[in-house]
Specification:
single chain, 239 residues, alpha/beta, Rossmann fold, seven-stranded mixed beta sheet, 8 helices, globular, binds S-adenosylmethionine
């Protein structure tokens, strides 16, 4: 990842799990962004950066979706393949995707619109801040984080999304019985995830690694890992 959003000041900020990239869209993303973001993108009060969220009361998701339904959050939804599959498979569930890269959100809203799905929304925001400020405690049925950026170098491990702090926040936002599912194709990150999850208030659903979450479609990140000879590790924890 390289580049930053030009012209944006660089105030002091928390360590985050991403580097802001210049957000050039391809023609189909531009079209989806222009035509469909109004239907799917939830605008939020910002903190100092374009992907940060100002401290605020949680959003009223029942009002946003026009109904009260179980809520699921995906952090780092990328191009939306898992998010769209989840929303399509569970019309009775409302799905919120947090993603920091605008072109990926454009792809996601294009796919949601093409499938005619109305039970999903996306927020251009750091998912950790989104969970903290936009989602009420004990309000989520599930949180997904699939193939988060691995941040290989030891000095970058503090940027990893699945950390002790994130696990604690996820625990607070899940309702009792709610599930946190993660997947990665990097063994050292998988082991680190398992360590912080085991040390958290969450409880492992499986002994050892979880079986493949059948609903999760193969995304380019998983395919790339498998093509390079890596295994995929999944974990599922319950509040
Ligand atoms: C390796 S990609 C995986 C995308 C998708 N989950 C998949 O499996 O195809 C990681 C994604 O997470 C996004 N991301 C990284 N940190 C994030 C954060 N704190 N909040 C929201 N999105 C984040 C990146 O922009 C990128 O789209």
């Amino acid at each position: 990842m390289s580049g930053v959003v030009r012209g944006e000041a660089r105030p002091h900020r928390d360590v985050v799990s991403f580097v802001r990239r210049s957000a050039r869209m391809n023609p189909s993303q531009e079209r989806a962004w222009r035509l469909h973001r109004g239907a799917y993108l939830v605008d939020v009060a910002r903190g100092p950066m374009s992907t940060s969220v100002a401290p605020q009361d949680p959003l009223d998701w029942s009002e946003i979706f026009g109904r009260t339904a179980p809520l699921l959050v995906e952090i780092g939804a990328g191009n939306g393949d898992s998010l769209v599959a989840t929303a399509a498979a569970h019309p009775d569930v409302d799905v919120i995707g947090f993603e920091v890269f605008e072109p990926s959100i454009a792809s996601t809203v294009g796919k949601l619109s093409a499938r005619g799905l109305r039970n999903a929304r996306v927020v251009l925001a750091d998912g950790v801040q989104g969970l903290r400020w936009l989602v009420a405690p004990e309000s989520l049925d599930a949180v997904h984080a699939f193939f988060p950026d691995p941040w290989h170098k030891a000095r970058h491990h503090k940027r990893r999304l699945v950390s002790a702090e994130t696990c604690s926040l996820v625990w607070q936002r899940l309702r009792p019985g709610g599930l946190f599912r993660v997947a990665t194709d990097w063994e050292d990150y998988a082991l680190a995830m398992r360590e912080v999850l085991d040390a958290s208030e969450l409880t492992a659903v499986h002994v050892g690694w979880a079986p493949r979450f059948e609903e999760r479609p193969m995304t380019k990140y998983e395919a790339r890992g498998i093509a390079a000879g890596r295994s995929v590790y999944e974990l599922c924890y319950r509040r």
